[in-house]
Amino acid sequence: MSRERLVVLSCSAICAAMAVCPAAVADPPTLKDAFAGKFRIGAAVSTPQIMGQEPAALQLVAKQFNTITPENLLKWAEIHPQPDEYNFAAADRYLKFGEQHQMFIIGHNLVWHNQTPPWVFEDGSGKPLRRDALLRRMRDHIHTVVGRYKGRINGWDVVNEAIDDDGSLRKSKWHDCIGDDYIEHAFQFAHEADPAAELYYNDYNEWQPQKRRAINALVRRLKSKGIRIDGIGLQGHWGLNYPSVREMEAMFDDYGKLGVKLMITELDVTILPDAQHYRGADITRTAALRGELNPFTTGLPPKMQQRLAERYRQIFRVIVAHSDAVDRVTFWGVHDGQSWRNDWPIRGRTDYPLLFNRQLKPKPAFEAVIQTANLNR
Fold it and tell me: Which residue stretches of 121-234 are H helix?
């Protein structure tokens, strides 16, 4: 027997006896463990997942994350589709899952111009509701939904996407029927329904200067009136080259002066070509499918995997550097196959915007994110 063989056997025997071969047996760190003490890290779960259609995805969520957000199941159209109808089955299961795994549970969302049924804004004859009537309807909905989960849902996205990219208030039906103060009323109603819950304003393109100034002004106005607002949700639907590091840093520095929590609430990074030279997240936008806009139908090449990994590394370096102000980072989806990016603004495209692939396996971007966790320790 050769000397080399004896050495191998000796090392193997020692490892077996001492059970200390970390490279062979150690599990890679989870996201929630890697960022413990810095910020919570979470994922948005879908209604089909919560209803049991993808149990492996929920197992991954339980292992990797410590906070969850519902993609759709608490939005008005799903939970309150008709005036006298509430569908709580999926929401109840969502709460049960979060509580079972001791997660920080988010409610998303209460007041939005999308995914709200037309009847909400109409009277019995189909005419637009008057201000007082719509305020009562808003209050009833918020009190019913928030009240049902009082003390169980930890924080609510109260108002979603109320500001246009130019900094003006969006001319939604909420705004048209009630006026500028509909946002104030929504926060007041949510606080009435659960005084202990954290309350957030959530929006996209939050890094653009005009919109950033408007969101700043909104938060300051609410606080000046004594209306509870605990945080800003910065959606983070970003790309490989936007926003820049400088723009992200300016965003964190500016919002950080407001004295509220900052959260990246819907993080994903598209690797697909721009369809419309548009960098927002308006879900009503559509574009025609063309081959050059859908280049990775059979998989993501290694070069693109590395570009995505480096982009996530860049993003998380900035987030970690501002972790004193950041309370939570939530990915908008569990895995690539779930992501809304596959169908927006072009239905049928194949995107790869998250850390886990369609087989629920970690991508190089996962390791890149993990590696940023200790940068400022």
Answer: 131-148, 173-178, 182-193, 209-224
Q: What pLDDT digit, counting tens, does each position of 65-89 carry? A: 999 999 999 999 999 999 999 999 9
The CA-based angle 341-346-348, given to 5 degrees, is 80
Q: Determine the residue type at 199.
A: L
Token code pair at residue 37: 């003490």
Cβ(238)–Cβ(226) below 8 Å:
no
Known catalytic residues?
A: 161, 266
108: nearest Cα among 57, 39, 154: 154
Question: What is the rounded CA–CA span in Å between residue 115 and residue 78?
Answer: 8
Q: Give the global pTM.
A: 0.91
d(CA 105, CA 98): 6
pLDDT bracket for residue 290 (50, 70, 90): confident
Q: Of the candidates 94, 188, 96, which has an alpha carbon nearest to the alpha carbon of residue 138?
A: 188
Q: How far apart are the first and last CA of the chain?
A: 49
- 167-205 pLDDT, tens digit per residue, is 999 999 999 999 999 999 999 999 999 999 999 999 999
